[in-house]
Amino acid sequence: MSNSKAATQDFVSVRDIKENVVIEKNGQMLMLLLASSINFALKSLDEQRAVLGQFQSFLNTLDFSLQVYVQSRKLNIEPYLELLSGLQNKQDNELMQVQLREYMEFIRTFTTNVDVMSKNFFVVVPYTPSKINLTKGITNLFTPGNKNAALPDEMRFEEHRIQLEQRVGVVTEGLARVGVRTITLGTDDLVELFYHIYNPGDNTGSAPMVDTI
Q1: E strand or H helix that includes residue 34
Q2: Distinct helix (H) and strand (E) counts, the chain
Q3: Which residues touch 15 (CB under 8 Å, ≥6 apart)?
Q4: Over the stretch 35-68, which tens digit does the pLDDT of each residue have?
Q5: How far separated are the first and last CA of the chain, in Å rounded?
Q6: What is the DSSP pairing of strand 117-127 with strand 29-35?
Q7: In whole angstroms, what is the distance from residue 116 CA to residue 134 CA?
Q8: What is the maximum span of the chain, computed from C-alpha positions, in angstroms?
Q9: Contact at 8 Å (CB) between 23 and 17?
Q10: What is residue 38's DSSP assignment?
Q11: What is the pLDDT of residues 75-128, one digit of tens each?
Q12: Residues 24-60, buried b or exposed e (16+ Cβ, 10 A)?
């Protein structure tokens, strides 16, 4: 049992999550942005060229690397069905009740036969401190009861976090010029995101801040 647990911990690259910053075991610091999508295929040829040109210009201004992570998760349809059921009970019109009941049955049958997926896009902004001590004071993300663990050098962490936030600002502004809106994930959203990454069998629940972007 202990060997299995050790192997699982070795697989998890995250050391801690602190003040919206993901700290990896190798000392690298990350901030994640949830990004909206644009209807590129529906744009005219000139608009598509403008978007591509703006995006190319944005990439050319960066002096650091970026990662784009696409998350696909099975959509939990039960809350929607519960909402429809409540509306059905409030209907005085018998025809409307029948239509809602048939619609709910269609949704149940469809989602049983077809996996309805939600797709989210994340931009990972990295920052590697020149030197940071992770040997003390940091606890594993999945170790209970140690959520408030601090870095050994709080001042150094704050300096690095400010540098990382400046990079996030550059990325946010650059993507906004392309028409892509972004939201920086908070600590709770990051914990939920990494939980689902390392527990792919649990596909229920809503994705972080999907409805607010």
Answers
A1: strand 29-35
A2: 6, 6
A3: 23, 24, 25, 134, 138, 140, 141
A4: 998 888 899 999 999 999 999 999 999 999 999 9
A5: 42
A6: antiparallel
A7: 41
A8: 70
A9: yes
A10: -
A11: 788 888 888 888 888 888 888 888 988 999 998 888 888 877 778 899 999 998
A12: beeeebbbbbbbeeeeeeeeeeeeeeebeeebeebee
Alpha-carbon distance 22 to 192, whole Å?
Answer: 13
Determine the Cα–Cα distance for residues 22 and 164; give it in Å rounded to an integer: 11
Check residues 174 and 115 and name the one with the higher pLDDT.
174
Say which residue the tokens 């050790």 belong to. 6
Distance CA 17, CA 98 (A): 50
Type of residue at 193: L
Which residue has tokens 């801690």? Answer: 16
Which tokens in the block code for residue 12?
A: 């998890």
Domain ranges of the chain: 2-75+124-212, 76-115
- Spatial separation of the C-alpha atoms in residues 35 and 182, rounded to whole Å: 4
